[in-house]
Amino acid sequence: MNSRERFLATLNFSDTDRPFYWETPGAWAATVQRWRDEGYDKPADVNFPDFFGMDKIKWLPFKGGWVSNPYYPLFDEIELDDDGTNITLIDRYGITKKVRKVNPETSMPQFLDFPVKTPDDFKNKIVPRLDSASTNRFPDNWKELVKEYNARDYVLGMYVIGPFGYLRNLMGDEKLMYALYDQPDFIHAMMKHWSSFYNRFISSVCSDVVPDFVMVWEDICYSNGPLVSPSSFSEFMAPYLKDVISTIKRKGIPGIVVDTDGDCTKMLPIYLDCGANAFYPFEVQAGMDIVKLRKQYGNLFTIIGGLNKRILSENKNAVKNEVDGKVPFMLSQKGYIPMLDHTVPPDVPYENFKYFIEYVRKVKPV
Predict the structure, then answer these.
(1) Neighbours of 108 (CB within 10 A)
(2) Percentage of the chain with pLDDT > 90?
(3) Would you state the pLDDT for residue 135?
(4) Statement to judge: residues 144 and 96 lie in one domain
(5) CA–CA separation, 99 and 69 (whole Å)
(6) Which of 7, 99, 183, 346 is 20 to 30 A distant from 84 in Cα terms?
(7) Same domain for 153 and 18?
(8) Same domain, 194 and 92
(9) What does the pLDDT read at residue 108?
């Protein structure tokens, strides 16, 4: 089987020649710096997944989107302050934040302000940047890429910013929570614009090429559950997500993967009702137990992840125990891609990561 066939079979809970190799979504820059001192010799012209022999995934190269809102054009980036350790700036998405100058991914930014406070802010600052018909969102070599994509034997993915992620990027967590109660009509108006944008944009993309899955980025949960109440999500966001997922399915895209960290237990039924059929990364430190979830939900959704990345900082025996306790059962149930529950942090030795990759690929279903 090629990578694409293997991925689609996994989504369908069908037999595969082997598990889909996607053991981590990546590693922190600080992790890579450490590994270089420990023998990590990846050539500059080889990407991280290829170096470790993972199945090939490519992402549609559009401007805007993923963890940030799909603006085009982006905002002008403006540096406001530099204290030597941190930089305060207005970023390309209109968000004012303070970030570390070195290895910024090792610490959450301090978010100071967001672009939308009023309906006029949304109308004047945001709406002009969410024109789904803008041909400038497509790379210059789009026609050539379409020919390649339509003859692919690898997996092709597309990023979509989820409804909660979209609203949070507009207003910030605190103002969003107040607005759900104080400005419900405004929230619905912004969500209608979100769904209209993606319905048109996805339809436009699929007129040229149909990807294998859409990754809906939300990060709606933390260690104790969702950041917004399930009832509020169901009222203000779920109807619009269901509408967009209907378009995704109607256009023939088979995979709808929701990406959220934290404890997503309370959100799983809502996303399933909206039409999602896969989730990741199932953070162990937030209490997510993929074996328990598989027994509870059966084959209602594909599980990607759920292996404790923190274990890799200990020793090889601990890594073995983590894999043995989950992967054989999960593979026997099908619909599972073995993966760490997030990117690899810098306390993980290179030898331990290599051992994890080698060992998890040897494991057989029980």
Answers:
(1) 10
(2) 93
(3) 79
(4) no
(5) 19
(6) 346
(7) yes
(8) no
(9) 85
Phi and psi dihedrals of 225, rounded to 5? 125, -165
What's residue 169's pLDDT? Answer: 96
Residue 17 token pair: 């020649």
Which portions of the chain are predicted below pLDDT 50?
A: none
In a domain, 365, yes or no: no
pLDDT at 64: 62
Q: Which residue has the tokens 């990741």?
A: 280
Do the bridges between strand 155-161 and strand 213-217 make them parallel or antiparallel, or are there none, so unpaired?
A: parallel
Cα 157 from Cα 257, distance rounded (Å): 10
Provide the Cα torsion 320, 34, 346, 30; round to 10°.
-150
The model scores a pTM over 0.90 = yes
Q: How many CA atoms lie within 13 A of 331 on its CB side?
A: 21
Give percent helix, percent strand, percent coil of the chain, each to the nearest 5. Answer: 45, 15, 40
Where b means 16+ CB within 10 Å and e means fewer, 122-138 reads beeebeebbbbeeeebb
Which of 48, 53, 47 has its CA nearest to residue 21?
Answer: 53
For residue 27, CA distances in Å to 49, 104, 268, 349, 359 come to 10, 13, 27, 12, 19
Q: Are strands 78-82 and 86-90 parallel, antiparallel or unpaired?
A: antiparallel
Q: Which amino acid is at 221?
A: C
CB 230 within 8 A of CB 266: yes
Indicate the angle between helix axes 238-250 and 163-171, nearest 10 degrees.
130
- DSSP-derived 3-state class of residue 35: helix
CATH number of the domain that residue 154 is part of: 3.20.20.210
User: What gap in Å lies between CA 343 and CA 130, rounded to an integer?
Assistant: 30
Q: pLDDT tens for residues 59-103?
A: 999 876 678 999 999 999 999 999 999 999 999 999 999 999 888
Other residues' Cβ atoms within 10 Å of the Cβ of residue 224: 10
The whole-number pLDDT of residue 133 equals 85
Listed in sequence order, the residues at least 6 apart from 71 whose beta carbon sits closer than 8 Å to its beta carbon are 64, 92, 93, 94, 126, 129, 130
Domain extent at residue 50:
3-72+117-360
Query: Using CA atoms, how far apart are residues 186 and 203, in angstroms rounded to an integer?
Result: 26
